[in-house]
Specification:
The protein is an alpha+beta fold. The protein folds into 3 domains: about 130 residues, 4-Layer Sandwich (Deoxyribonuclease I, Chain A); about 130 residues, no CATH class; about 30 residues. Strands 1-2-8-4 form a 4-stranded mixed β-sheet. Strands 3-7-6 form a 3-stranded antiparallel β-sheet, with no helix packed on it. Strands 5-9-10 form a 3-stranded mixed β-sheet, with no helix packed on it. The N and C termini lie far apart (about 55 Å).
Length: about 325
Amino acid sequence: MAGHDNWTETVNASFIYAKCSKAERQTLWSELSSIARSITRLWLVGGDFNVISTLAEYTGRAPQDLGAISDFNTAISNCRLQELSYTGSSYTWSGIRAGTRIWKRLEKTLVNQQWLDFLPNTSVQHLNHTSSDHSPLLVSMRPASASVPKSFKFQTFWISNPGFISTVQSNWELSTQGYGMYRLAFKLKRLKTWLRHWSKHQFGDIFQAARQHEIEVQQKEVLYEANPTEEAREALHCAPGRLLQSLRVQEEYWRQKARLQWLKDGDCNTRFFHASVREKRTKLAIHRIKDGEEAWVDDEEQIAREAVDFFQRLLTAEEVGGG
């Protein structure tokens, strides 16, 4: 963390060099679980675990110990850790076993949710072997990416508004010039613009609305206690209903963001949805790519520029081929 003058967080790190046998690793899993129960700060766990977490992390002919794999995954789950995305080779160790070469990914870097909340752009690079048969891991931590214009997304909580269907229909039936796909594209663009304004008017900031409704419930309770009239009682009964509705809108928002439809309706899983979205963003983040000359690029602006250049080259090649 040298050079970060404004650093305010305390970071905990556990560096692993695990035993080779399944039985001997049980002590390690137990100690990590004990740390996880008491730790409340950013926590990184990385090193040589001497076990894979899935058969996809192994190439060779020797059978693998499924019990050891299960124990490792159980330990990760019990510690509430998540693996960071990586670049480089799929394997971090190679050796000879029973007269044949095998490859495994024994090195990993895991972090807790507090780490992902504070450093969402952390990534891992598997470096090349040098004097060891294990690959060193390079962990890079960067601040959150600068905000970019938001793309349009249909929000499923819009449907909860009683007038949604009729207003969409009335907008769609407005007169339109042109024919065929041009007319369809124009209708969709017009509807998209209208939905943005409509959502802002009908729902506004759904998170701010929930906070305001919480304050409203507290205020109505104080007013009723100070003056328990029938009017105050009715107002007190209405306020929790508005709060509950705003919380349901929030839950549906996170449910859609996380794309997890299998959880039971009605359970308030907002924190779980939020964590799932962050985990997905971490895994899908692009930390570096190769440019047209096969050189690695890791600057965010260069990555964006190279992505645009790639598709431009692709389109040019298709136009030349088609001509």
